[in-house]
Design a protein that fits this description.
Helix content: 25-40%
Strand content: 15-25%
Number of domains: 3
CATH topology of the largest domain: TIM Barrel
Number of helices: 17
Number of strands: 21
Distance between the termini: 20 Å
C-alpha cells in the first residue's frame, strides 16, 4: 500500500495525553497530519506510555507509513518545600530566607531541598519561583542558605518550581527516574530521546552514552546557560528543540524570539533537525480556532525553515486535538506556497564543507532544480545522507530510503523527507530500480520524470555519500 504523501515540507509533532490515548484518536491525528508523536514522561506511568507506543505502531502498520516517536524525559524538577497552611504571601521589598531545613515555611522563610542550587548562587543572583511570577534577589548565601530580597511578590504555595537564570548547577540532566524511563523507552523502540534541563554539551554526551545509538538525542534548549554553549550543544546532539515555555521563564519575554532565531540558524548551519515548541496554538486547548497571533507564530517558525513545529497541551488535553493538527498543517502549507518562503530559506547560505559528501549533496540539490526533477532519492544506512539533503532545503521532495526501519522512523522528523524502508541493495542498478519503484508507487513521480539519486558506495558503509545519479523514469 502506498503511504500517505504530505503536501508540505515542515513536520508536525503532537503530544499524546488523556484526550488522545486510544488507537483511533492516534489514527485520526495521523490522518490530520501528525508525522511524529511525543510521549511525555513528566506525566503518566510507564504502562500507560507502553500502551500509547503500541497504539502508534499499530497505526503505523495500518497505514503503511513510518511514524516517529519522541520519549520526552522529565528532567530534574527544582521546587520549594511545604508551607504552614500550604501557602504564604511575599511582599516586594521584604527579606526572605531559603535553606535546607525541612521545617515548613512561612512568610519569612521556606525550605529549598536542593544543595546544588545554593552551590550555584552568588550575591545579586536572581531566583524565579512559580514560573517566574515571584522574583527574589540574593543578598547573602552559603552552602545551606540564601538570604534574599523580594523583587516581585505574590502568593507562594507548596512545591512551586524554582529557576536560577544563567547559573550552571553541578547536577546531571538525568535523574534516577529519567534513567529508568530512558531504559524503558529504548526497550519500547522509541526513535528519539528528548533531554530536558540541558545546561552544557556534557549533558547530551551522558544521554548519548546511555542510549548507545538506539535512539537519536534531541536536546531541549530551555536554559540560558545552554544558549551560552549553543554551537557545541548543537554539534553534540542529533536534533534540537527550542523549548520556549521554560526558556521564557529564565529570560525576558522580549529575548525569546531572537534566541529562537539564533538557535534555528545554528541548527540549519550544522544540518541538525530543529523543532520549535510550546504554546504554538495554545488557545485551541479550549477553542476550535487559534488567535491570529498564534497563526503568525507558527508561520514565523516555518518561514525560518524549522524542521518541525510541536503541539503540546493542544493535543494532550485540549478539546480540539484533531482540529489543532489540521490548522497547523494548513498554516504550514500556506507559508510554503508563498514565493517569499523559498527566498528566505536560502537568504543565509550555509558553508559547504570541502568534503565529497557535501559536494555531492549540494550538486544533487542544484541538479534537481535545473532539471525540475520530481524528487531527490537518498539511499542511507544511518540517515546522514538524507539529512545532508534536507540541509540544502531543495525545491524537490526528498525520499529517505533505508533498509532499516529505525532509521526511517528517525527521519520522519526531518524537513521535506518522506522516509521509506526499502530492501538492501548492492549495485547502482539496484539503487535506480528501488528509487524509481518507490517514487512512482508513493506518487512522487511518473513516466518521463527525472529522478536525482545520492548514495554512498560501497552500499551500507556509513558516512560515504559519494555517488550522484540522474535517471529518467521509463514506462
Amino acid at each position: 500500500m502506498a503511504a500517505m504523501q504530505r503536501k508540505r515540507q515542515a513536520k508536525i509533532i503532537a503530544t499524546l495525553g488523556p484526550e488522545t490515548a486510544g488507537e483511533e484518536r492516534i489514527a485520526a491525528l495521523f490522518q490530520a497530519g501528525v508525522d511524529v508523536f511525543r510521549v511525555n514522561f513528566s506525566h503518566g506511568t510507564q504502562a500507560e506510555h507502553a500502551r500509547r507506543i503500541a497504539a502508534i505502531r499499530s497505526v503505523e502498520a495500518r497505514f503503511g507509513q513510518v511514524i516517529g516517536i519522541i520519549a520526552d524525559l522529565q528532567g530534574p524538577k527544582l521546587r520549594v518545600g511545604r508551607f504552614e497552611g500550604g501557602a504564604t504571601r511575599l511582599e516586594a521589598g521584604q527579606e526572605f530566607r531559603l535553606d535546607l531545613s525541612p521545617q515548613p515555611g512561612d512568610e519569612r522563610r521556606a525550605p529549598l531541598p536542593h544543595p546544588e542550587i545554593f552551590r550555584a548562587l552568588s550575591p545579586d543572583t536572581d531566583l524565579l519561583l512559580d514560573d517566574g511570577k515571584i522574583r527574589l534577589r540574593v543578598e547573602a548565601c552559603g552552602a545551606d542558605f540564601a538570604t534574599t530580597r523580594v523583587v516581585t511578590g505574590g502568593p507562594l504555595s507548596d512545591h512551586k518550581g524554582v529557576n536560577v537564570p544563567r547559573a550552571v548547577m553541578e547536577m546531571s540532566a538525568l535523574t534516577e527516574k529519567d534513567r529508568s524511563d530512558l531504559a524503558f523507552a529504548l526497550d519500547q523502540g522509541v526513535d528519539w530521546i528528548a533531554l530536558s534541563f540541558v545546561q552544557r554539551p556534557e549533558d547530551v554526551a551522558e544521554a548519548r552514552a546511555l542510549a548507545g545509538g538506539r535512539a537519536g538525542i534531541l536536546a531541549k534548549l530551555e536554559k540560558p546557560s545552554a544558549v551560552d554553549t549553543l554551537e557545541r550543544i548543537v554539534e553534540t546532539s542529533d536534533a534540537i528543540m527550542v523549548a520556549r515555555g521554560d526558556l521564557g521563564v529564565e529570560v525576558p519575554a522580549e529575548d525569546v524570539p531572537s534566541l529562537q532565531k539564533a538557535i534555528v540558524r545554528a541548527c540549519r548551519r550544522a544540518g541538525r533537525p530543529v523543532v520549535v515548541a510550546t504554546q504554538m496554538l495554545d488557545s485551541m486547548v479550549s477553542a476550535p480556532m487559534p488567535t491570529r497571533a498564534e497563526a503568525s507564530d507558527v508561520a514565523t517558525a516555518v518561514y525560518d525553515g524549522v524542521d518541525a513545529v510541536m503541539l503540546s497541551a493542544e493535543t494532550a488535553v485540549g478539546k480540539y486535538p484533531v482540529e489543532a493538527v489540521e490548522m497547523m498543517s494548513r498554516i504550514i502549507a500556506r507559508v510554503e506556497k508563498d514565493p517569499y518562503y523559498a527566498r528566505l530559506l536560502h537568504a543565509e547560505p550555509h558553508e559547504i564543507m570541502p568534503t565529497t559528501a557535501d559536494a555531492i549533496t549540494a550538486a544533487a540539490a542544484q541538479a534537481a532544480h535545473t532539471l525540475s526533477a520530481a524528487a531527490i532519492a537518498t539511499l542511507t544506512s544511518t540517515g546522514s545522507t538524507t539529512l545532508r539533503a534536507a540541509r540544502e532545503r531543495p525545491g524537490a521532495p526528498i525520499l529517505g530510503l533505508t533498509p532499516y526501519v529505525e532509521i526511517a522512523r528517525r527521519l520522519a522528523l526531518a524537513w521535506g523527507v518522506h522516509p521509506v524502508q526499502v530492501r538492501s541493495v548492492s549495485r547502482v542498478s539496484e539503487m535506480v530500480e528501488v528509487a524509481t519503484e518507490v517514487a512512482v508507487r508513493e506518487g512522487f513521480a511518473k513516466v518521463d520524470d527525472r529522478l536525482v539519486m545520492t548514495a554512498g558506495v560501497p552500499f551500507g558503509t556509513p558516512g560515504t555519500t559519494n555517488t550522484l545519479r540522474i535517471t529518467r523514469i521509463g514506462s
